[in-house]
Design a protein that fits this description.
16% strand, alpha/beta, 13 strands, two-stranded parallel sheet, 317 residues
Length: 317
């Protein structure tokens, strides 16, 4: 049975979800590296926490396993520092397989159909951190980079949790021209499956996969259908003037959220911030081509209606 080290930096449920998925496998023994898990871990998950940005700690931990999955999610500094530590450790242990969670943000402001050969371009600190991590991955052997689309479903704090709050408060809805960008959706369970299937590849080498559903929808379609799943109807048409006001309010709202913590913002009825970066995503006309993942990883995507139903149940719990 192969030992698989999994870490995410305590920032979300992805690492814990992967660990729990592997816990049911007869081929892999998951080793969870984070100090804290946002969801309960199954008894079969081995818990061996360490500092994921410390090269010596990472090198020692990697030496005891057969493979590593890095699920670090949203913090650019943590993405960069953990990647530095991980790939410094892997240089001396080339027999290990590594799976790196990455993002479609590495394609910058690209438009049209984009496959894995498309040139990367940083537009902010987050995309720059992802590109940096991928460049380190390319210098080692047996590393798989998974460029995720928009993760939604239970556990997605931003694209299901935050979006759900905004839809319920009628601050999001049909955005008109501002929501005509393509929504490259990826259900959270499908992302977990892609990570597991990456470990099962017979021949690894260095590979990169785009991950998103083949069901093509615009952001307006996603927002309206999600609102209906949440029963936040009738769905409101949001004027461009209202969106401009929202972006001006986003900074003080974000400061308030950081002051009390994300877990308390809804309880204290602090409005969720609607940032300019989020609005720019809503209008970007980029389509991820994920046919490579379908062919090599055998990916099959969760239907949108099923995913939205489960996301609505999760946020309502």
């Amino acid at each position: 049975m192969k030992q698989v080290l999994i870490f995410g930096g305590n920032t979300g449920v992805l690492a814990a979800s992967v660990a729990n998925e592997l816990a049911g496998s007869e081929s892999f023994q998951p080793v969870f590296a984070d100090q804290y898990s946002p969801i309960p871990l199954l008894p079969a998950v081995k818990h061996a926490p360490f500092t994921i940005t410390n090269t010596d700690h990472v090198k020692a931990a990697v030496g005891n396993v057969d493979a590593v999955i890095s699920c670090v999610e949203s913090n650019p500094r943590l993405i960069t520092d953990s990647a530095n530590a991980l790939f410094a450790a892997l240089k001396s242990q080339s027999d290990k397989t590594a799976v790196l969670f990455s993002s479609m943000s590495v394609y910058g402001n690209a438009e049209g159909v984009v496959d894995e050969s498309f040139q990367t371009a940083a537009t902010d600190a987050y995309s720059a951190a992802r590109i940096h991590a991928e460049s380190l991955a390319s210098s080692t052997s047996n590393t798989i980079c998974l460029r995720s689309g928009v993760e939604y479903g239970p556990g997605s704090l931003r694209w299901s949790g935050l979006i759900g709050r905004l839809l319920r408060s009628r601050r999001l809805g049909d955005l008109g021209a501002a929501g005509d960008g393509y929504c490259n959706l990826l259900y959270m369970d499908d992302l977990v499956q892609a990570m597991v299937r990456s470990l099962q590849l017979q021949t690894v080498g260095n590979q990169t996969f785009n991950l998103c559903s083949s069901e093509r929808v615009t952001w307006n379609h996603y927002l309206v259908r999600y609102a209906r799943a949440l029963r936040a109807v009738p769905v409101k048409r949001i004027a461009s003037r209202r969106l401009k006001i929202e972006t001006k309010l986003s900074i003080p709202l974000k400061i308030a959220e950081m002051a009390v913590g994300s877990k308390w913002t809804e309880r204290l009825h602090i409005p969720a911030p609607l940032t300019s970066s989020m609005l720019s995503v809503f209008s970007q006309r980029l389509l991820l081509n994920s046919s490579k993942a379908e062919q090599i990883l055998g990916m099959k995507w969760t239907p949108l209606e099923e995913g939205l139903k489960k996301a609505a149940q999760w946020i309502s719990y």
